[in-house]
Amino acid sequence: MKLIHSKFLVFLILIIMLSSFMQKTDIKQVNAIGFKNILRSKPGILLDVRTLREFKNGHISEAGQLNYYALDFRQKLLMLPKNEPIYLYCNTGYRSERAAKILIDNGYAEVYNMEKGILEWNLYNLPVKIAPDANPDTDNKLEMTEYLHLIQQDAMVFIDFYAPWCAPCRKMMPMIDSLEVEYHEKIKIVKVNVDASKSLAKELKITGVPYLVLMKKGKILFSQNGLIERKDLIKVFETALKTEKTTKK
């Protein structure tokens, strides 16, 4: 009798756990247009999880701001009410998605994330509000005319599109710097800050960083979104250089 009772308890616990798992809410991922439409039709709490400087340089009207990298971010995030829709965004959707997961894991039922962030919002020419004391980033800024001149040269050009807030970008930076020294006679390596080069990022339809591209005379030889290992990037460089050398013969 005790054995049957124990088996029943185990079965009951498994049913409860399974029911809890099945009822777990997912993050609602939406593109920029969908985000705009939902905000208009179903009011809730709109939160920008970028740094204050990023926020001041261009944010969605009526958005609150909470820095994802702040030590008390999680604590403040979980002070949001659970009975209203929560709308989150950042530059590319990475930080806001992680913030959304925190909310979902803590019982928030209706959480929306702008999947590709304000970069896609800008791509559709949707309105942003710039603070009077905005301080635009100018490091490694590139305009379209400069970009076109750069990629049309005879030399092979590798461009690292990055952002200062992007953790994978920062992780790769020392590697990119070392390769710039190693390949300075063979490949021109250029870093472009998408925060400082907003018009260029918009023209090129860049909605995520890091974005890496190897070009020659305007033709793309290699491109990748996301991290790449040093050995893999060297392989890309060497293959392109070998192909170029073979073509010239």
Provide a descriptive summary of the structure in words:
The longest helix has 21 residues, at 2-22. This protein has two domains: 25-123, Oxidized Rhodanese, domain 1; 144-248, Glutaredoxin (3-Layer(aba) Sandwich), CATH 3.40.30.10. By secondary structure, the chain is α/β, with parallel strands linked by helices. It has helices spanning 2-22, 32-41, 52-56, 73-77, 94-105, 117-123, 144-151, 167-182, 198-203, 230-248, and strands at 28-30, 45-48, 64-65, 86-89, 111-114, 156-162, 187-193, 211-216, 219-225. The strands form two sheets. A five-stranded parallel sheet has the order 1-5-4-2-3. It has a four-stranded mixed sheet with strand order 7-6-8-9, with helices on one face. Strand 6, helix 8 (167-182) and strand 7 form a beta-alpha-beta unit.
Keywords summarizing the entry:
10 helices; Glutaredoxin; 249 residues; 9 strands; five-stranded parallel sheet; Oxidized Rhodanese, domain 1; elongated; 2 domains; alpha/beta
Brief account:
The chain has 249 residues and is α/β, with parallel strands linked by helices. The chain has helices at residues 2-22, 32-41, 52-56, 73-77, 94-105, 117-123, 144-151, 167-182, 198-203, 230-248, and strands at residues 28-30, 45-48, 64-65, 86-89, 111-114, 156-162, 187-193, 211-216, 219-225.
